[in-house]
């Protein structure tokens, strides 16, 4: 019985030490997070320099309509790259739906939700299961490496000049007021080449 009590006491001491260490690390992480700019923690990573060359790609929707991003200059373009088999991709879709619902009637922004595997049937099933109504397109040529480096989900937001204004690799919550404000600022920007 005494050995059992000693083991319990030892486990308790270890747990207290671990919790204390975790709490100290959390405090350090909070300090580091507070040192970053608010934009860096609330919107997708902002990217490019002003002189960066814009690239383009061609996509096709289920009805056969072709969309080339080069033809979308003058509009903000939200491009999300995903696949039906990707759990983080699927998990972030409701937040993209929220953002899309906010701006879907605005003619100054285009949403291209790119299913990179051309899995039309799998996409239909996923959208139906999640009660999602997003503008899905499929790649018709190579996706520029500046937009998609291999990790999905990846989201790229192009400004009205076709230049990357923000890029997010990995899952992200796009349904926040900070993201909505960021998109609205891009829409309101009147400096189009």
Give your account of this protein's structure.
- The longest helix has 34 residues.
- With 193 residues, the protein is of the alpha/beta class.
- Strand 6 and strand 7 form a beta hairpin.
- It has five helices and seven strands.
- The N terminus is likely disordered.
- It folds into two domains: 34 residues; 144 residues, Glutaredoxin, CATH 3.40.30.10.
SSE sequence, one letter per element: HHEEEHEHEEEH
The overall pLDDT, averaged over residues, is 80
User: What is the 3D form?
Assistant: globular
Using the 3D structure, state the CATH architecture of the largest domain: 3-Layer(aba) Sandwich
Give a summary of the structure in a few sentences.
The chain is an alpha/beta fold and 193 residues long.
Structural topology:
Blueprint: H1 2-35, H2 38-42, E1 58-61, E2 66-68, E3 76-82, H3 87-103, E4 109-115, H4 120-129, E5 136-139, E6 154-158, E7 164-169, H5 177-188
Pick out its properties.
single chain, 193 residues, alpha/beta, Glutaredoxin, 2 domains, seven-stranded mixed sheet, 5 helices, 7 strands, 40% helix, 19% strand, disordered N terminus
């Amino acid at each position: 019985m005494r050995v059992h009590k000693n083991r319990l006491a030892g486990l308790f001491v270890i747990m207290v030490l671990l919790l204390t260490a975790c709490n100290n690390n959390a405090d350090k992480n909070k300090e580091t997070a507070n040192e970053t700019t608010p934009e860096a923690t609330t919107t997708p990573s902002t990217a490019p320099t002003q002189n960066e060359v814009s690239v383009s790609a061609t996509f096709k929707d289920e009805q056969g309509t072709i969309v080339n991003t080069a033809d979308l200059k003058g509009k903000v373009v939200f491009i999300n790259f995903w696949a039906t088999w990707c759990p983080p991709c699927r998990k972030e879709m409701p937040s993209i739906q929220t953002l899309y619902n906010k701006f879907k009637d605005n003619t100054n922004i285009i949403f291209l939700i790119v299913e990179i595997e051309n899995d039309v049937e799998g996409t239909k099933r996923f959208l139906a299961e999640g009660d999602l109504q997003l503008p899905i397109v499929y790649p018709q040529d190579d996706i520029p490496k500046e937009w998609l480096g291999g990790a999905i989900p990846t989201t790229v937001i192009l400004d009205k000049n076709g230049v990357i204004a923000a890029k997010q690799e990995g899952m992200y919550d796009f349904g926040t007021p900070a993201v909505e404000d960021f998109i609205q600022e891009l829409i309101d920007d009147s400096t189009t080449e």
